[in-house]
Amino acid sequence: MLKIFRKREEDNKSVMEIIDKYEGAGDPVTKTLTFVKEFLGPYNGREDMTYRFEHTLRTARWGLKIAEGEGWDPEPLVMACLLHDVGYPKCTDFKDFKVHPSISAEITRKFLEKINYDSEQITKICRAISIHDRWNDVPADATPFELSVRDADDLDRFGIMRTSLLAGEDITKHTAAELGEICQERLATLEEHKNRLCGTPTAEKFWAESLECRRQFYENLIKHTERTFELQKWMQERA
Ligand SMILES: [Fe+2]
Ligand SMILES: [Fe+2]
Fold it and tell me: Quick one: pLDDT at residue 93?
């Protein structure tokens, strides 16, 4: 169980030092948010944690919207979403990033046990977190709840903020003509994304809206790249 922790004695100590401060009394969502903020807050050398923490807040907001849409008690899903990326500060290389769901699930289990959260809910939450990076290769027996952390996470990952971030990188690295081609490729990929499995009808609806938003974004971006050439075109026509 504590394999990942044992691999890094120093990290193990700091994780447990933070978890040990938390007790059973009080609102579990408030405690979870405080814990996540303490854990994911930016610190020297890891400024990417600002984005990670704010992504976490938006993912939890999607969790809330899914739970409301499905008529579920939102508390466990909001908590699962808040905790889903809590393993990131323990990831220092690409190999680590690939296993961040299991690192996050392991930290989550220790934290939820420490605050005496319901054991059945802990099992559900940890499983949901451990599969949150899967695309359509989800376990056949995954429940709608267990698929919903993944849905909430991807809804933020495909939202306009992340789309803009990607586009920003493309704009700084490529010419307008190349950018137009990249946008066309991204539009084609969006068609494949329509086949992504969702855990609930509510997430399915949000997913379709999110892809539509991304489609409009890229189509607008293509129109704007074309403006780069319009002056020269006008000059040629004028000559
Ligand atoms: Fe993640
Ligand atoms: Fe995430």
Answer: 74
Taking the CA of 52 as reference, the closest ligand is 2
131 and 172 within one domain: no
Taking the C-alpha atoms of residue 107 and residue 9, their distance in angstroms, rounded to an integer, is 14
CA of 98 to the centre of ligand 1 (A): 9
Name the closest ligand to CA 130.
1
Task: Give the residue ranges of the chain where pLDDT is below 70.
Answer: 1-13, 42-47
Q: How far apart are CA 63 and CA 100, in angstroms?
A: 19
| pTM value surpassing 0.85 | yes
Ligand 1 centroid to 184 CA: how many Å? 27
Burial class (CB in 10 A: 0-12, 13-18, 19+), 125: buried
Ligand 2 centre distance from Cα of residue 71 (Å): 24
Of the ligands numbered here, which is closest to the C-alpha atom of 129? 1
Q: How many CB atoms lie within 10 A of CB 12?
A: 15
Q: Is residue 143 part of a domain?
A: no
Q: Tell me whether residue 171 is in a domain.
A: yes
Cα(183) to ligand 1 centroid in Å equals 25
Range of 94's domain? 3-135
Question: Residue 48 CA to chain centroid, in angstroms?
Answer: 14
